[in-house]
Amino acid sequence: MSHQQPPANPANTPSQRFFAGIGITPGMRVLDVGCGNGDLSRFVAALAGPAGEVVAIDRGADSLAMARVADARPNSAPIDYRQVDLAEALPELGKFDAIVGRRVLMYLPDAAATIDRLRSIAKPGAIIAFQEHARAGLPTGLSELPLHRQLYDWTWSTVTAEGGEVTLALRLMDLLKTAGCAIEDARCEAILLQSGDPSFLPTLARAMLPRMIERGVTTAAELDPDTLADRIDQERRTVGGTIVWDLAFLVAARVG
Ligand SMILES: C[S@@+](CC[C@H](N)C(=O)[O-])C[C@H]1O[C@@H](n2cnc3c(N)ncnc32)[C@H](O)[C@@H]1O
């Protein structure tokens, strides 16, 4: 039986470049909000170094359990994973030099209210930086991509059905400005799928299938996970070239 690693999520590709450049330095106290399995928490912990400290919060007990057993990066700050609901008042967490989050604000019922609460626990001059994604009429490629398009629509429709705001990324700069932050960096990077690389999409579809079914967006029979990887591969081979799959919006701001 093969134990091949599934392809890495290409939506995380811009994160390292971006979060490495927002100004996190050794010794800082950093908060990662909606940390999930802690991938970004571990990255910022390495930036903060052994003299720093990271608090990583999420409401999901299963994600936090995964995060707590993952291997730390070398020379990292210790990470304190805590179960916190960002839609509610925050528990006592202390003040932070930097607050980061990736793909989390779009899931919150009132992102502006959460940003205000986060700002109140940011030290003066602290950095606040987010990576969010938006539904943006993709994917696009050299010719029609009906299966890729279908998967894209199912994915974003599921987020909408769950109450997520799929265009929040387009309001991210305004939200941070309204919260009294000065924008230091704002950019958007395309997430590309290259022909010849193993596709991440079957992994994404399998991970999202229970949510898609729960929300009535599609059925297991319609998505047919057993043949999906082959059908995606075939569509890519037929179309060739690069597929623009998604957009990552990356905004860093400083608290006044
Ligand atoms: C798409 S995942 C991203 C995880 C992680 N930031 C990453 O990029 O790998 C979204 C995360 O936001 C968390 N989340 C959603 N709503 C939340 C809330 N109200 N309070 C805390 N966490 C929340 C989910 O539990 C999930 O772990």
Automatic annotation (TrEMBL):
The keyword Ubl conjugation does not apply. GO terms for biological process: methylation. Pfam families: Methyltransf_31. Keywords: Methyltransferase, S-adenosyl-L-methionine, Transferase, Ubiquinone. Coiled coil: none annotated. The keyword S-adenosyl-L-methionine applies. One of its GO terms (molecular function) is methyltransferase activity. SUPFAM superfamilies: S-adenosyl-L-methionine-dependent methyltransferases (SSF53335). Residues 25-144 form the Methyltransferase domain. This is Ubiquinone/menaquinone biosynthesis C-methylase UbiE. It comes from Sphingomonas prati.
